[in-house]
Amino acid sequence: MRSDTEIALTAIGVERPSTEAQWLVEEVSGMDASQQLAHASEGVSRRAVSALQLLVERRASGEPLQYVLGSWSFCGIDISVDRRVLIPRPETEVVAQVAIAEVRRCGGRVGPTDATDAWSGNSTAYAVADLGTGSGAIALALAAALPDAEIWATDVSEDAVAVARANIAGAAATRVRLGIGSWFSALPEILRGSLLVVTSNPPYVSEAEYKALPPEVASWEPVSALVSGPTGLEAIEVVVGEAPSWLVPEGSLVVEIGATQASAAIALALDAGFVEAFVIKDLVGRDRVLVARLTD
Ligand SMILES: C[S@@+](CC[C@H](N)C(=O)[O-])C[C@H]1O[C@@H](n2cnc3c(N)ncnc32)[C@H](O)[C@@H]1O
Questions:
Q1: Ligand 1 atom closest to Cα of 139?
Q2: Apex 100 CA angle, 79 and 117, nearest 5
Q3: Which of 1, 46, 83, 196 lies 20 to 30 Å (CA to CA) from residue 203?
Q4: What secondary structure letter does DSSP report for 148?
């Protein structure tokens, strides 16, 4: 089953046919790579073959592998994804890790926790927010690492919030609360001035850049998750500009940015009243994460 799938994926020009074949077979058979090898000589049900054919056809139509599989790993957490949400990216794992480090810097306890269930917890010591949560990936990474945090996950898209809700329910992450609305307006007013850390991966692609995106991104992922406006900085401007009034006096903001937006994002943060602002690189050395602190 796997070698036939690999041949089919090679024929349609998939970049990593062997790996993708393994994942697709895993999806329909429920068997990992070693189990697939052990059972290679056994017959396969017709149902499994047609299910696999369907997945290969979807892949052949250009649909991203992650949507075809229906889930993707983010910071070691299995996240359900479909066309309603952006596929979580490796650079966003850096954003989540930096946000966790900022919580630690602000005095928050970072897991692993000694509680029996790292996801739940009746009492919380502080609140953080993930704005533009999409699938809920960053919020869930924060919930897994920050045992005492109440996490607010918000999005303007009701479709995205539906996906995030399902992911949060699936992970039994009872400390994650959802809000619908544009940026900070999705949060209850009572949180103003009380968030330890705010994080966001907002849309930051300009309308012109959008036209140059590969079809696998532009034709499949939500435009509203990618494009911010004519300059690409519009959403970053709002998040950075409004964050100081929602943070505690020693709080931090952590925002994913485009690789060419570092100096503009730092200038916006200093203008907004942050006393320290700098950019951290992603795994391939591009400036991708703005960190802005209200105290140094
Ligand atoms: C780049 S995606 C990030 C999704 C997810 N946080 C991740 O990192 O995979 C941007 C998200 O921001 C949301 N968004 C766009 N405009 C927004 C707004 N005005 N207020 C809140 N969220 C918004 C989109 O719906 C989308 O889910």
A1: 6
A2: 60
A3: 196
A4: T
| Ligand 1 contacts CB of residue 199 (under 6 A) | no
Q: For residues 168 and 261, what is the distance between their CA atoms, to the nearest angstrom?
A: 31
Could you tell me if the CB of 66 is within 6 A of ligand 1?
A: no
Task: Report the candidate in 128, 172, 173 with the shortest Cα–Cα distance to residue 154.
Answer: 128
72 and 85 Cβ atoms separated by less than 8 Å: no
Classify 97 as helix, strand or coil.
Answer: helix
Q: For residues 58 and 158, what is the distance between their CA atoms, to the nearest angstrom? A: 25
Q: How far apart are CA 244 and CA 273, in angstroms?
A: 7
**Helical H runs in the chain?**
2-11, 17-29, 33-38, 46-60, 65-69, 90-105, 137-145, 158-171, 207-211, 215-218, 223-226, 234-246, 262-272
Ligand 1 centroid – CA 88 distance (Å):
11
pLDDT digits (tens, 9 = 90+) for 170-225: 877 789 999 999 999 999 999 999 999 999 999 999 999 999 999 999 999 999 99
Beta strands at 227-229 and 247-256: parallel, antiparallel or unpaired: unpaired
Domain chopping of the chain, boundaries: 2-61, 87-293
Q: Which residue minimizes the CA distance to atom 27 of ligand 1? A: 134
Backbone angles phi, psi at 105, to 5 degrees: -60, -35
Is any ligand 1 atom within 6 A of the Cβ of residue 138? yes
Count other Cβ atoms within 10 Å, centred on residue 208. 11
Q: Could you name the CATH architecture of 87-293?
A: 3-Layer(aba) Sandwich (3.40)
Residue-wise pLDDT for 274-296, tens only, equals 999 999 999 999 999 999 999 98
